[in-house]
Amino acid sequence: TANAMNLFKIxxxxxxxxxxxxxxxxxxxxxxxxxxxxxxxxxxxxARSAGLSFDETVAALEALAASxxxxxxxxxxxxxxxxxxxxxxxxxxDASKAAGISFQDQHGNMKSLVDISATLRQxxxxxxxxxxxxxxxxxxxxxxxxxxLALYDAGxxxxxxxxxxxxxxx
Length: 170
Known about the structure:
Number of strands: 0
Largest sheet: none
Order of helices and strands: HHHHHHHH
Low-confidence stretches: none
Shape: globular
Number of helices: 8
Strand content: under 5%
Distance between the termini: 15 Å
Structural class: mainly alpha
Radius of gyration: 15 Å
């Protein structure tokens, strides 16, 4: 809880929310609180730098846990995906443009993960699983592909549900 609070600049009065959110995430997935703590250690700084809130970051980690990626592997995948999407190579930028996928809004800020999930689903609707996986691997790299697949698999409704579930207290 303390590490997450420091990382996301969360005030002491909100410590209960952080603890509750981590417990909720562990309760709705096959991960445990330790897995989410390790994932935040590996990927939290990149998430915060990309503009993700604590809750949005934990929801992404829930999606990863639901797809079988937990602990430091989940954090590394999230970090890698975000870094590749924020600062793509020419090949990644060209692939994103060709697929009609934009990860940033008109102001240059990272879109919400719910919006990204919706875009991934819409823009790859006619692709085979192999084509989609190849595109996601090009966009986010071999570690980051797990994050894009988890966001795709979860879909925007489930991601919203994960975020709303984090508001539970006690």
